[in-house]
Amino acid sequence: MAGRFPDAQLFIDLHGHSDRSPLSTTVAAATLLRQLGVPAERVPADPTDRLAMWRSELAGRRAVVVLDNAADAGQVAPLLPNGPDCLILITSRRRLIGLDSGRPSSLPVLDADEAVELLERVAGAERVAAEPEAAMEVARRCGHLPLALRLAGARLAHRPRWRVADLAERLAGASDPLAELVAGERSVAGAFALSYEQVSPLAQRVFRLLGLHPGQCVDNRVPAALADLLLPQAQDALDELVDAHLVEEVEPGRYQLHDLIREYARTLGAGRETADERRAAVGRLIDFHLQVTASIGRSLETGAEPSLFDLPEPARPDLVAATVGLGRAWLEENRSTLTALVRLAENEGFLRQSWQFARVAWVSNFYGGRLDDLIETHQIGLRAAERLGDEEAVATMLNYLASADYRRARFAEAIRRLEAVVGIYRRLDRPGELRKVLGNLGTAYAVDGQHQRGIELLTESAAIARRSGESSWLSNLLNNLSFTLISHGRYDEAVRMCRNQMAVARQAGDLRQLGNSIGHLSMARHRRGEHGPARRLLRVGLRLKRRVGNRYGEGELLNELGMMEREEGRPELAASLHRDALVAMIDAGDLVGQCASRNLLARAIFDQGDVASALDLHRRVLADAERLGLRYEQARALDGLARCLRHDDPDQARRYAGRALALFRQVETPDQRDTEKLLVELG
User: Fold this and answer.
1) Is residue 626 part of a domain?
2) Which of 34, 183, 562, 683 is the most exposed place for a label (fewest CB within 10 A)?
3) Residue-number span of the structural domain to which 216 is assigned
4) Last residue of a domain, one of 273, 290, 321
5) What sign does the CA torsion over 129, 131, 133, 137 have?
């Protein structure tokens, strides 16, 4: 900046955060005056006169002044010049809130390329460039923090026989990563300590306890639970930590710790809190999130057994009440945290809370398409239930693990788990729980193509529900029965079932099941040839599916609309709808729905005249459906291949059609009639 500010370029370290005491304002003014060339004997002894001389000497000069490492606003405010011709740059570990002028800017960490470049400058460009992947890993382990990168680079520079990969392995395997980021008297932990020591004892305690939180982001309710504080106290502590740059406010009301700072907080907590204090804080953290998740889950999962959400009174009802109104949005914001807390509950010995947490988070994970989280949490919950020797908890975990198997098209595994659950509930004489798992088992059999066995189990479940007057579960059963009847080609029965379900869902005020009943009614009426009413019902059903966030159901109805458009001679619109349906099925994590969407998309593409693309897509669906064991989608893919090849290779088309017909007959579906006609046409 010398060209822009030719009269002076000044720099002073104010030692606001260092092992030395901060410079007083008057000492800083004397140092700056000497940098301007004022002889020591001319510098006034009186503080007021000295500051006046400093401003007078700057007046009329074009100067740049760096006031580095400021302690607070009071230290630097008297040093600010009056004139417009100077540029003052102030750096500090704290936010200098007391300054009226200037533009504050919190520096982020380096980006990935900048981090590697800094590592190259310290350790040597050729050496680092020779191992780019290892260099990126070192940068990641350093959290892209400049000081950490400088210290890591210094270790490499002083150990010429080390590879960059050696340092990356040490950082990855270290029980205390901060201990690896030391060079002589300098360390990352020491730099963090300078900021930590500047905040109040309450903020220090909150900071240490935040190291116990396993998620990325928190709001003010998290430290309130961890430290057992009132919300205003927790907010004040967070604000103080933000000002000290120990916590970052990533968006209004949402905070996070840098990975290395979290490690520092965890280390401090292990040394300064007793084991009982840490366990109590973890218990409060788990209880808060479990209670909120259960409360929101009750509103989203109206057909659930009340006992599944039967928890003791919350430790902090005020925090729960302040959170539950956020509803599904809170679950979405905290989805990764909830999974991490299930792990934490198991690791810390909160076994009952571990399996309960998995269960109450199920509705968000299942309908949100987060099947990996669903499986991980329920596997952890299953281990916890087995360690507790709680058969009912074991059955609960197996039942909801089967729901992920169902979405992943692992029907044999889902049936195996559910048969085990049926055995447990029959042995324990739990008719309420038995009716539910019978419904799930019947649905699994039906989707696997064993429609008659599915209808038998669903009918048994419905009979138990009617005897017990369980209307909410009856609605769910009627939904599954109607879908099975549609798949079996029994459309008139399906229409009656859908209307019964609609009445039950309306009475219960269950929007999810109301959307399901309307959606299935539209499908049954479409298949009866009633396109006008079906289209109107589909639009209403879609609105309800979107309103409750049911991505699978949305994809199901988009596919139905696409089929209707193709039948009415609009394949371009049909293809667009099937592509949207495919996106929804991918979001839901439903592999069966993805195969169905792609098969239907291929048919629409074929009707547009792009035979080659349709042929390729059907072949890829066939490979996936064979790998997953989806007989119905295999049959649809084979039927599509036969249609694509009927003119160019009729012999191969006949073979494909014959295989399709055999599979359609296995799964007892009316689609076989169209394939029979195709075989007749092929001769």
Assistant:
1) yes
2) 683
3) 198-273
4) 273
5) negative
Selection from 84-98, 195-209, 308-322, 431-445 with the highest mean pLDDT: 195-209
Residue in 406, 393, 465 with CA at minimum distance from that of residue 435: 465
In angstroms, the CA 597 to CA 582 distance is: 5
Number of separate domains in the chain: 4
pLDDT of residue 303: 56
Same domain, yes or no: 80 and 21: yes
Q: Read off the pLDDT of residues 458-471 as tens digits, 9 standing for 90 and up.
A: 888 888 877 877 66
End-to-end alpha-carbon separation of the chain, Å? 87
Do 119 and 141 lie in one domain? The reply is yes
- For residue 371, being part of any structural domain is answered with no
Q: Same domain for 221 and 177?
A: no
Q: Which residue has the tokens 């064979």?
A: 626
Tell me the mean pLDDT in the region 313-320.
94
Q: Which of 328, 381, 673 is nearest to 527 (CA)?
A: 673
| Contact by Cβ (8 Å): 109, 256 | no
Structural domain ending residue among the three candidates 233, 257, 273:
273
State residue 309's pLDDT score: 57
- Clarify whether residues 243 and 224 are in a common domain: yes
Q: Please give the Cα distance from 73 to 512 (Å, whole number).
A: 56
In a domain, 495, yes or no: no
The verdict on residue 323 lying in a domain is no
The runs of H, that is alpha helices, within 273-410 are 275-300, 317-321, 328-333, 335-347, 351-360, 362-367, 371-388, 391-407
If asked whether residues 171 and 222 sit together in one domain, one would say: no
One domain, residues 134 and 166: yes
**3-state per-residue secondary structure call for 135-164:** HHHHHHHCCCCHHHHHHHHHHHHCCCCCCH
Confidence of residue 227 (pLDDT cuts 50, 70, 90): very high
Q: Return left, alpha or beta for 304; rule: phi > 0 is left, psi -120 to 50 is alpha, else beta.
A: beta
Are 15 and 74 members of one domain? yes
* Amino acid 316: pLDDT: 94
Measured CA to CA, the distance from residue 402 to residue 400 in angstroms comes to 5
Could you tell me if residue 159 is left (phi over 0), alpha (psi between -120 and 50 degrees) or otherwise beta?
beta
Q: At residue 260, what is the residue type? A: L
> Mean pLDDT score of the chain, rounded to an integer?
90
Instruction: Name, in order, each residue with C-beta under 8 angstroms of 536's C-beta and a sequence gap of 6 or more.
Output: none
What digits encode the pLDDT tens for the residues 24-38?
999 999 999 999 999
Q: Are strands 186-187 and 217-218 parallel, antiparallel or unpaired?
A: unpaired
Dump pLDDT digits (tens) for 638-682: 999 999 999 999 999 999 999 999 999 888 788 889 999 999 988
* Interstrand relation of 63-70 and 87-92 (parallel, antiparallel or unpaired): parallel
